[in-house]
Amino acid sequence: MYIDSGADLTFVPNDFGKLLEMNLRLNPGYVAGITGRPLKVSLQDADIKIGKQVIRSKIAIASRNNVPYLLGRESIFRLFKISFEEYEELVRFVPKKHIPPRPRRPTALEIREHKEGILLKPAGPVKGGEVAGEESYKKILQELGSMRKKWR
């Protein structure tokens, strides 16, 4: 498993979710990584054990298997001091004595046209229970595409 400080969520292949007997039809969504291409996932809660610590965290289970195992920031990076000691080929997870409160940060971007271009700004948290389905996702992509064409 790779430790990925650039990944928001822990990410695993489809077969791993099946091994954990998770219902992969629940909580459908999309994630985009470094390639920018969306990948269909099932968002699940899972226990992650690091040393003696067990942390409940959100994970993304991919709809296919040819993806890497990634340990992302969600829940993990807030609870541990993580040090990479390359010369010893070692990664240390040291539990923090004082756990800082979870920062309040926006969970979405608001996209608006502006006289100077497209304006992206943090939006408030998404209301509980709302899931962007495939149709909503396609509509958002179409709107972004038409805005890009307009500003070129």
Explain what this protein looks like in three dimensions.
The protein has helices at 14-19, 76-79, 134-151, and strands spanning 2-3, 10-12, 28-32, 38-50, 53-62, 70-71, 80-85, 90-95, 108-114, 117-123. The chain has 152 residues and is of the alpha/beta class. The termini are far apart. It folds into two domains: 2-95, Cathepsin D, subunit A, domain 1 (Beta Barrel), CATH 2.40.70; 108-151, no CATH class. Strand 3 (28-32) and strand 4 form a beta hairpin. A four-stranded mixed sheet has the order 2-5-4-3.
Keywords:
40% strand, globular, four-stranded mixed β-sheet, Cathepsin D, subunit A, domain 1, 152 residues, alpha/beta, two-stranded parallel sheet, 2 domains, 3 helices
Please give the structural blueprint.
Blueprint: E1 2-3, E2 10-12, H1 14-19, E3 28-32, E4 38-50, E5 53-62, E6 70-71, H2 76-79, E7 80-85, E8 90-95, E9 108-114, E10 117-123, H3 134-151
Parallel strand pairs: 1-6, 2-5
Antiparallel strand pairs: 3-4, 4-5, 7-8, 9-10
CATH superfamily of the largest domain: Acid Proteases
Query: How far from one another are the termini?
Result: 41 Å
CATH architecture of the largest domain: Beta Barrel
CATH topology label of the largest domain: Cathepsin D, subunit A, domain 1
Tally of individual domains: 2
Going across the biggest sheet, name each strand in turn. 2-5-4-3
Instruction: Report strand %.
Output: 35-45%
Content-based structural category: alpha/beta
